[in-house]
């Protein structure tokens, strides 16, 4: 029997949810507010009501062209996600539906690579990129982003695939479906919410990745993370400009997240409630 | 139709030939006001050198340092010109990572570079980086508050005077702190200030045999004075304040005095951003009568990595950006006050500059008061005023900076911080083979 929820409880829960959401979102909101202040206003302490000037945006655009960085970010995040899915879907399929003796260990090992600090492998990776001519190339960085996010993608897909009854795939096989048909026509459509949320999460992760994207690029392949970094100054207070640069950098992914929040939440909680 | 095709073909061929001929050099730099201005003025360079194109990479200081170090150590060849400081130049030049600057042109006038700055950028008399802007540190103070306290700031104050003035100026009820100093941990943050300060107290990082000196009374006097001064007169949460935080406090009128980089003078005296612009006075960094002042010396400089394939074009650019002509170009477009300071003697002899920048003389005097080759009262085996020019210093300086920052925050005592600093320094120097 469903538990009766009183209106009072509902109101309290809603208010609490709003407060938590506001707390989580506040730093981003304040960044956006600060971007519409003048530099002097920005350093004058806490103030939620900006004068509304857009001088910081004009200055940011004049100092470095936003569009090139933006295109690189789109290319890198979408490209690395597609690459990661191409590798991860078959990998997760085999681990979910025909696990071997070492499957669990392999999964743990994959995840363990995420535990190592990235800087520990900076030099080897840098040398490999230098020798293969991949420094400051979009392709090189796309492969790098695919590799660092691959463990998470495989894990997420593995969890979703495990929720799908193996009998359905068996039935498909009985009907004469080949392995390819089984993955493409039976498994993938059933796992669409899972794949979609994995894809969205991976795009967000790749978009925000700021270690490798700054260190392996100079001018050609530099994405928005490098764009923001160029506005941070050790000598001089450019908080409004930095906020404008940050707002420009997060706006696309924020808008994308807003429109796809249903899929994201559905995907992330998929299988959480039995 | 045929003619049009032919013309189009010729045009695209010539465009291709031009593009193939034009050489592109990549310059790594930081987002400081003077650097941003240089990027805006590059049309002048490309007009004079149509066969060279410029690509800029602007990065946050620490990221830039890490990026260019990785690139130069691996000979990655990503950059043709790098913006580096006086800390890196002697170390990198000794490793043969930098090209000597010997083709700067006949009209470059190397001798015009301020000797203290040129000394910090040379190894065995050869210049390895050209200074783009130089800075020292000095005292910036509120003339109105000083007057209210019934005191007159001398041109060359002592630490005792600073303490006396800070005590009188502090008025926490109205939000005024007598003195604002760096407290944020980092070799280029609080340790830049404290190392320079310790020089004036007679302290040194290492003796002639590279033995750390934190167990000596001079360091105890330095740190105790600093912690006591800040506890009595410093702003709240001072242990997390760096240059930018103190700049914000000073601009809002919350500091009576601020001892920091000379480059700050142009910010605090700018009426657009500073509420105290017309009330700021300047004085040399304090001393203790031992012959050394507590001021540092730094120059953001342009250097050419040994791995570049475009050394000639890179040198042309370095020569342009650090020339007298560049100073005149900035002056003609943005006024003399915006010319990069602290690199050339001729700038300080220029009456127009003296008029536009009231802090000019004090900046030059401060720079001249620092000697990177003899930074301390007692002899030392290293070069550097507010740093020790050895590769281990970045890590060690930051570790010691964290200990001293903790002492300022009251998390540890001055004695404990010094003892731990001594242990950390001894371990690092033994590991590095300096102490046998």
Throw out a few tags for this protein.
heterodimer; A: 274 residues; mainly alpha; MetI-like fold; 14 helices; B: 436 residues; alpha/beta; D-Maltodextrin-Binding Protein, domain 2; 2 domains; eight-stranded mixed beta sheet; two-stranded antiparallel sheet; 19 helices; 14% strand
Description:
The complex is a heterodimer of chains A (274) and B (436). Chain A is globular and about 70 Å long. Chain A starts with 6 loop residues before the first helix and ends in a 5-residue tail after the last helix. Chain A has two domains: 1-64 and 235-248, no CATH class; 65-229, MetI-like (MetI-like fold, Orthogonal Bundle), CATH 1.10.3720. Helix content of chain A is 72%, strand content 0%. Chain A contains 14 helices and no strands. Chain A has helices at 7-35, 39-43, 55-63, 66-97, 103-112, 122-131, 138-162, 166-174, 179-190, 192-208, 212-215, 224-229, 239-259, 261-269. Chain A has 274 residues and is mainly α. With 436 residues, chain B is α/β, with parallel strands linked by helices. Chain B has two domains: 22-128 and 298-356, D-Maltodextrin-Binding Protein, domain 2, CATH 3.40.190.10; 136-296 and 384-431, D-Maltodextrin-Binding Protein, domain 2. Chain B has helices at residues 2-21, 33-40, 42-48, 61-73, 88-94, 115-120, 143-148, 159-169, 190-200, 217-233, 243-251, 264-268, 311-321, 324-334, 345-349, 351-356, 360-368, 393-409, 414-431; strands at 23-30, 52-59, 81-84, 122-123, 126-127, 130-142, 177-180, 255-261, 280-284, 297-303. In chain B, strands 1, 2, 3, 6, 7, 8, 9 and 10 form an eight-stranded mixed beta sheet that branches. In chain B, helix 18 runs antiparallel to helix 19 (414-431). Residues 14-20 of chain B have low confidence and may be disordered. Classes of the chains: A mainly alpha (274), B alpha/beta (436). Chain A binds chain B through residues 39-40, 43-45, 63-64, 122-123, 126-127, 130, 135-136, 214-215, 218-219, 222, 226, 229-238, and chain B through 26, 28, 30-33, 36, 39, 55-61, 63, 66-67, 70, 74-79, 188, 242-244, 247-248, 251-252, 261, 263-264, 267, 272-273.
